[in-house]
Design goal:
The complex is a heterodimer of chains A (290) and B (314). Chain A is mainly α and 290 residues long. Chain A is 72% helix and 0% strand. In chain B, 36% of the residues are buried. Classes of the chains: A mainly alpha (290), B mainly alpha (314).
C-alpha cells in the first residue's frame, strides 16, 4: 500500500490515457517527436537522394518538386541531409541525457538519503559544474582531443549531471519524511534499498519530465557546437554544420539557412511541448488543483 | 544577514578555487610540449630546454599552478605564444566587445521578459496570455545563432539598416559600436527572454494565489499597486535565480554569436587560440569566463537577501 501514496495519479490506465489525449501540449509534442524519430529511423534505409554523391552542377538550387528543400553548395539534396542529420542530433542529445541521468540521479539520491557532508559535497559539486557552460567544457575537451561528435556528447552530458542531481535530490528529500518511507525503515530496510524500491519509482515522473527538457536543450547545444565546428565533423551531416555552411552563401541562396533551422526549431518545440504535457499529466499536485 | 553573506562568499571563493584547479589540470594533460610547439620542429634541443626554463615549464606542477593563479589575481595572465603580447592586453581589447554585448543583451532580456511575464500572469487565461505563451514557447526553441542569421538576412542584407557584421571599435564614439552590437544582442536575448518571461509568469501566478494578495486587494489597494509592489517583489526570487543561470548561457552565447557577426570579442579570440594552439590564451579566457559566471551567481545569491527580508534576519 505504501507506494500508492505519492506517484501515479489515483486513476486507472484507461482514464490516464483519456486525460493524456485531452492534453493538447502532450498530443502535439508526442506527434512531433514521433515524427522526428520516424524520420531519423527511415533515414537509415531510405532518403530521397544519396548524399555521398555530389552533383555539383545542381548546386544551390531553390526548392522544387524534385528537391523539396533545394540543394546545397555541393548539389546535395537538403531534405536528405536533414533526414540524416536528425540521427546525429538525436544520438548526441539522447546519450548526453543518459550520462546526466546515469551519474546525476545516483548522486542526488545519495545526497538526499545520507544528508550531512555528502549532501553538502554533492551540492558544491553542482555549483562547480554549473560554472562551466557546455560550450566552455566543449572548448576545453576539443583543445585536448580535437573536435568531434563524441566531445559534444561528453560536454553536454557533463552539464546535465548537476541538473539531474538537483531534481533527484529535491524529489527524494520530499519523500524521505513520508510515512511509507518511515514504515520501510521500521521494517528494517537500509537507505540504499529504500532508495531503489521506494524513492526511485516515485521520482520517475520528475526525471522523465526533466529528461525531455534536457533532451531539447541537448539538441540546441549540439546544433550550437557543430555550428562553431566543435561538434560533428564533415562529411557527417549535422543541422548546426549545415547552418554554418549556409552563412556565407545566404545572399544567393537563403533557403540553405532556412530548412536546417526549421528542423531544429520543430524538434525542440516538439520535445518542450511533450515535456510540458508530461508534467501536467504526471504531477499529482497539479491534478488536484485542476 | 552577514552570516548568510559570509557563507555565500566563502562558498563562492571555494568554487572559484576548485574551478581554477580543473581548468589548470585540463590544460596540463594536453598532449605536446608548449615550448617545442612554439619553436617549431627544427628547434635544437638546447633551445627547447632554454625556453622551457624561461617559461617555467621545468618547475613542479604545484608551483606552476600557484604561479598561474597568483598571476591571475594580480592581473598577470602570461604572454600569448602567437601574438607575442601580454594575454591581459589581448583579453582587455576583446572584452571591450564581449562585455558590452553581454550587458546589452542582459538589459534587453530583462526589459522585455519581466513585463511580458507580469502582463501574461495578470491576464491569466485570456487570449493575450495564450498568445504570449505560444510565442515564448517558439522563442525557447529557436537557436540563437540561427535567429542571428535570419536577423542578418532581414536587417543587413535585405533592408540594409545595419552592418552585417564586423566591429568599428569604440574610438569613433559609442554610436557606431552600439549599432554593430544591436543585432547580436537581440539574437542573444530572444531565446533567453522567452525562458525568463515564462518563469516570471509562473512565479507571479504562484504569488497571486497567496492569501496576502487577496488581503491587499480586499483592503482596497489598486490592482496595479498590488501587482507591482506586493506580487512582483515576492516573485523576484525565482526570477533572479534564472537570470543568474542565464548569464552563463549569455556568456556561452556570446562565443557563438561573435562568430556569426565576425565580432572581435573573447569568443573569436578563444577559437583563434584553439586553432593556433595558443593554450595560455585558451586557459586564461576559459578561466575568466568561468569566474564571471561564478561571480554573477554569487551576486544573485547575495541579492536574495535584499529582496527577501527573511534571509536578512536568518
Amino acid at each position: 500500500m505504501s507506494d500508492l501514496a505519492f506517484a501515479a495519479p489515483p486513476t486507472g490506465a484507461a482514464t490516464f490515457l483519456r486525460r493524456a489525449l485531452r492534453n493538447r501540449s502532450f498530443v502535439t509534442g508526442l506527434a512531433i517527436t514521433a515524427l522526428v524519430a520516424l524520420v531519423a529511423l527511415v533515414s537509415f534505409f531510405w532518403t530521397p537522394y544519396d548524399i555521398t554523391h555530389l552533383p555539383v552542377a545542381e548546386r544551390m538550387k531553390p526548392p522544387s518538386a524534385s528537391n523539396l528543400f533545394g540543394t546545397d553548395h555541393f548539389g546535395r539534396d537538403i531534405f536528405s541531409m536533414i533526414m540524416i542529420g536528425s540521427r546525429n542530433s538525436i544520438a548526441v542529445a539522447l546519450i548526453a541525457v543518459g550520462i546526466g541521468m546515469g551519474i546525476g540521479v545516483p548522486l542526488g539520491c545519495a545526497a538526499a538519503a545520507r544528508g550531512g557532508w555528502l549532501d553538502e559535497a554533492v551540492m558544491r559539486f553542482n555549483d562547480i559544474v554549473f560554472a562551466f557552460p557546455a560550450l566552455l567544457s566543449a572548448i576545453m575537451i576539443t583543445a585536448i582531443f580535437g573536435p568531434g561528435a563524441v566531445n559534444a556528447i561528453i560536454a553536454i552530458g557533463i552539464f546535465n549531471i548537476p541538473v539531474f542531481a538537483r531534481v533527484a535530490r529535491a524529489g527524494a528529500l520530499a519523500l524521505w519524511p513520508r510515512e511509507f518511507i518511515m514504515a520501510a525503515r521500521v521494517a528494517g530496510k537500509g537507505a540504499a534499498r529504500i532508495t531503489v524500491e521506494h524513492i526511485l519509482p516515485n521520482i520517475v515522473s520528475l526525471l522523465l519530465v526533466q529528461g525531455t527538457i534536457q533532451f531539447a536543450l541537448g539538441i540546441l547545444a549540439e546544433a550550437g557546437l557543430s555550428y562553431v565546428g566543435l561538434g560533428a565533423q564533415p562529411p557527417m551531416p549535422s543541422w548546426g554544420r549545415m547552418l554554418f555552411d549556409a552563412q556565407t552563401r545566404m545572399m544567393v541562396a537563403p533557403h540553405l539557412a532556412l530548412f536546417p533551422g526549421f528542423a531544429i526549431v520543430i524538434t525542440v518545440l516538439g520535445l518542450n511541448l511533450l515535456g510540458d504535457g508530461l508534467r501536467d499529466l504526471l504531477d499529482p499536485r497539479l491534478n488536484r488543483e485542476r | 544577514m552577514t552570516r548568510y553573506a559570509l557563507n555565500r562568499l566563502l562558498v563562492g571563493l571555494a568554487t572559484l578555487l576548485v574551478a581554477s584547479v580543473i581548468v589548470f589540470s585540463v590544460m596540463e594533460i594536453l598532449p605536446g610540449d608548449p615550448a617545442r610547439l612554439m619553436l617549431g620542429i627544427n628547434a635544437t634541443e638546447d633551445a627547447v630546454v632554454a625556453l622551457r626554463q624561461q617559461m617555467g615549464l621545468d618547475q613542479p606542477v604545484v608551483l606552476r599552478y600557484l604561479h598561474w593563479i597568483g598571476g591571475m589575481v594580480v592581473g598577470d595572465l602570461g604572454r600569448s605564444y602567437t601574438y607575442s603580447v601580454p594575454v591581459l592586453e589581448l583579453v582587455a581589447e576583446r572584452a571591450a566587445v564581449s562585455l558590452p554585448l553581454a550587458i546589452l543583451s542582459l538589459l534587453l532580456l530583462t526589459v522585455v521578459a519581466i513585463p511580458v511575464g507580469i502582463f501574461a500572469a495578470a491576464r491569466r487565461g485570456s487570449a493575450a496570455d495564450a498568445a504570449t505563451m505560444a510565442v515564448s514557447q517558439i522563442g525557447v526553441a529557436i537557436p540563437n545563432f540561427w535567429f542571428a542569421l535570419l536577423l542578418v538576412y532581414l536587417f543587413a542584407v535585405w533592408l540594409r539598416l545595419v552592418p552585417a557584421g564586423g566591429f568599428p571599435g569604440w574610438s569613433a564614439g559609442p554610436w557606431p559600436g552600439l549599432k554593430a552590437l544591436l543585432l547580436p544582442a537581440v539574437a542573444l536575448a530572444l531565446p533567453q527572454a522567452a525562458i525568463l518571461s515564462r518563469v516570471t509568469r509562473s512565479a507571479m501566478i504562484d504569488v497571486l494565489g497567496e492569501d496576502y494578495i487577496r488581503t491587499a486587494r480586499a483592503k482596497g489597494l489598486p490592482r496595479a499597486q498590488v501587482l507591482w509592489r506586493h506580487a512582483l517583489r515576492n516573485a523576484l526570487i525565482p526570477v533572479l535565480t534564472i537570470l543568474g543561470l542565464q548569464f552563463a548561457y549569455l556568456i556561452a552565447g556570446t562565443i557563438i554569436i561573435e562568430n556569426v557577426f565576425y565580432l572581435p570579442g573573447l569568443g573569436r579570440l578563444i577559437f583563434q587560440a584553439i586553432t593556433q594552439r595558443d593554450l595560455i590564451v585558451v586557459e586564461s579566457v576559459v578561466m575568466l569566463l568561468v569566474a564571471s559566471v561564478i561571480i554573477v551567481n554569487l551576486i544573485v545569491d547575495l541579492s536574495y537577501a535584499i529582496v527577501d527580508p527573511r534571509l536578512r534576519a536568518a
